[in-house]
Amino acid sequence: MRYRSTRGQSSGLTFENAVLQGLAPDGGLYIPSEIPKVPFSKIAEWSNLKFTDLAYQVLRLFIDVNEIPNDDLKTIIEKSYSTFDDKDITPLNKLPNVTNDQLYVLELFHGPTFAFKDVALQFLGNLFEYFLIRKNKDKKQDEKQDGITVLGATSGDTGGAAIYGLRGKKNISVFILHPKGRVSNIQESQMTSVLDPNVFNVSVEGTFDDCQETVKALFSDAEFKNKYQLGAINSINWARILAQTVYYFYSYFTLLKKLNVAVNADTKPETLPKIQFVVPSGNFGDILAGYYAVRMGLPADRLCIATNENDILYRFMQTGSYEKKKVGPNEPEVKQTLSPAMDILISSNFERLIWYLVRGDGRVESTTATAADDEKASATIAEWMQQLKTSGGFTAPAEVLERAHTLFDSFNVTDEKTTETIGRYYHCKSSSYVLDPHTAVGVAAAEKMHAKNPVYTICLSTAHPGKFPEAVLPAINNYSGEKIASKEVVYEEIAPKALVNLLGRPKKCIDVKTDGGKKEIALKQVRLVIEETMKGF
Ligand SMILES: *Cc1c(COP(=O)(O)O)cnc(C)c1O
């Protein structure tokens, strides 16, 4: 398997190079040269595998054996998911019957930082380590070792998951920038309480965008990038998408088991109960993994993109126009909502889906597209992405939107609805379930999706509610409908012990002052922090 850029200027990369580079030099994202198609008789053989064995089967198709031998890949996978606190890794739970009894949540938050990003970043961290150990294997003791400096910016969840994925790893240093005072208390504690000598939190006076721009500027400085071997962990990294495809297969089979439906090599997929997925989306990485799963052969009925009020994806699905939200002159472009991990202006991974749609693929691959169509698609994508940059948007022709509609639906959800949904599921009399605000966006969309297409519906649950008490506690305590108890719910009741214990732990963080948010000072200071710190390595 080789990898190519969506924008057409680089191709033929190995898995290792695609993962280590992250972003392609032409600004595009890496995609596999083809998507392996697995016949259902073969997929059916996966139905009784445990999570890690299933992961091995799926990942093997995208990583050549001569790049990572079978046993090594198995070891990397086992190690990555040994840090999860549930034997199913991603358990599936039935939601209380509030509107109907076909809704399920796929809990993706059983990793070390209680967010779905752990599923991918635990794996990515171990991959980085594996590649480095191999590069350094034949080096003499006094020879300089190959290393990676991972540099990223976070508005909350990514930073923690990246730090937990990379802490303590040999020859890897991690610098995570966050905007000072603008990430939640819990998220800040989660990152800064990691004291491993290879982890450096940098709190920057300014906004998340300032942090992001600083990171981009350092990555585009070729000399700096080479000197420190900068590595990226953001959600455009192919390994992250790949790791996330696994739980679509896994949860599909888990649900069939719960429904007592047996699957074997002779099963015709069209005779099985229909199952659709709803995904709380931001950068489009999570749901894109679902698209790859379907293209591989997973017989999912529909994929539904749930957005909050930052709804560029929802608007695209309505109109075919992909446009940054137009807001008033004094309003910030990104609206701050109760589901901050989904507060985005544009969704970077959408570029990958659009490439397939332009090429002629929808739910299934085009039967007529040729290599020339691949190149044409890349040229179109490069042009649209340029338009997005210069004029804030682009419009896809009708047939592209139609192809999207062969598989995808979308709904947007307001903060008010998010809050109401958390309250309603908590105060359900038959059984109570605590939703985090991101999952609540998904569940609110899932209710609409189920009304439109009444089949079994799996909503991906992307964070533990204990990570977002500022949204969850008021939603429960100030619920306007009938309550199950009058007593006020407190943080300790909804949070796992590991999160409660975080607050008050010793912290390690480097403060960067920017004279009130000046970008050029931020860049200069962060560069200096990295240079000074790396002298010791
Ligand atoms: C990152 C994140 C999302 C959005 O996922 P994408 O892959 O960016 O679409 C949703 N919910 C939570 C809690 C997240 O951390």
UniProtKB/TrEMBL annotation:
GO terms for molecular function: pyridoxal phosphate binding; threonine synthase activity. Keywords: Amino-acid biosynthesis, Lyase, Pyridoxal phosphate, Threonine biosynthesis. The modification N6-(pyridoxal phosphate)lysine is found at residue 117. CDD domains: Thr-synth_2 (cd01560). GO terms for biological process: threonine biosynthetic process. It is an enzyme of class 4 (lyase). Its EC number is 4.2.3.1. Pathway: Amino-acid biosynthesis; L-threonine biosynthesis; L-threonine from L-aspartate: step 5/5. Residues 90-363 form the Tryptophan synthase beta chain-like PALP domain. SUPFAM superfamilies: Tryptophan synthase beta subunit-like PLP-dependent enzymes (SSF53686). It comes from the Eukaryota. Residues 2-81 form the Threonine synthase N-terminal domain. Its cofactor is pyridoxal 5'-phosphate. Belongs to the threonine synthase family. This is threonine synthase.
